[in-house]
Structures are given as structure tokens and as C-alpha cells.
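User:
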Amino acid sequence: MKFFVDTADTAEIRDLAASGLVDGVTTNPSLIAKSGRQFLEVVEEICGITDGPVSAEVVALDHDGMMREAEILRKIADNVTIKVPLTIDGLKTCKALTDDGTMVNVTLCFSANQALLAAKAGATFISPFVGRHDDVGFDGMALIRDIRLIYDNYAFDTEILVASVRHPVHILESARIGADVMTAPPAVIRQLVKHPLTDKGIEGFLADWAKTGQSIG
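Assistant: Predicted structure:
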């Protein structure tokens, strides 16, 4: 499973990339706003950090407006992925862009039917929001299972990009189901490495090493 980082914090992206954990990056207008920086400037910097897909979201709601904004965004770098909402105009834009060789991430997916439409429109990625789905009383991971089944039934090329990831269990379950990608905030990705027995083991090794009175180098 590929790991995308869901942030516009370039320092965090660089740090995680150094550990080999960054296969791509997702951004959205809310994340860019939190950075306090210019949208195009941030996207360009991120594209220079990773060779993987970098999702940059349009804000227009009509097809013509989305296409105008996408034209600007895809000129930034070859790895820019245009992010569009799961609406009829978004699907029209997805079809036009993917036919032209541009990667597209269809976002704000909350049903398997929507995911089916995105795949038929040629989406590179579909982003089902599992955390937000859980928030309103539905099972976010059941949605991922349904999409995986449907995509496998018809051999769709669209990759399942699990979004709105809130905790490590979402990542574990996504991997078990066979999702292609997950995107999570840096803090959630860092939680994956934590285990009390790992910490206890390091503490014990260091205590034993101190008793030897030795040093390395």
C-alpha cells in the first residue's frame, strides 16, 4: 500500500520523505489555508520534494471553471494530480483531463455508487472519506470493502485512496482490505511506529550497554 501525506506543511513532508514513507502528497484548500502561504507556491514546493503524485484541488464548481483552474495547476509539474469533487461537473472534468493524460483524484466520495461513477469516468484515484463516514454513524471501512469488491469485479484501474484517516487502525484495516493508497496527516503516520514494547526494549538495551562502560566510535 502506498503512503500519501495529507498536509501542506513542507517541513513535515521533507522529514517523512527522508524515512522513505512518502509515495505522494494530498492537499486541499483547508490545508493550504492553515499553511498561511500562497497556494501555487506551496504546490510547486511539494512537487519538488516528492516524485509521487501531488493532489492539488480545484475550487470552481462548474466544468469550464474546473478546466481553467486545472490548466494552471497541471503546468506546475508533471506529478501534479488534479483533485475534483464527486459531482457531475467533477466527473466531466475527470473524463476530459484523464483523456488528455493528466492524473485526477476524485474526492469527497461517500458511497460505492459514487466510486463506481468515478472509475467509469477514468479517475486515477478515488478518495473515500472513512473518518467522516464514521462520524455520521456509518462504517467507513465497509465502504472500502465494497469499493474494492466492485473494482476487482470489473478490473477498473482506478486506485482506492483511503482518505480522512483518523488513526492507525484505519490504516491497518485499509491494508487488510487491499486499498491501493492511504493518505493521512503526519501525526497519524508517526503513530504507526509507536509500540510500548519497542520503547521498553530500547530502554533495556541502553541500560545494559551503560553497564559495559563502552562507547561506539
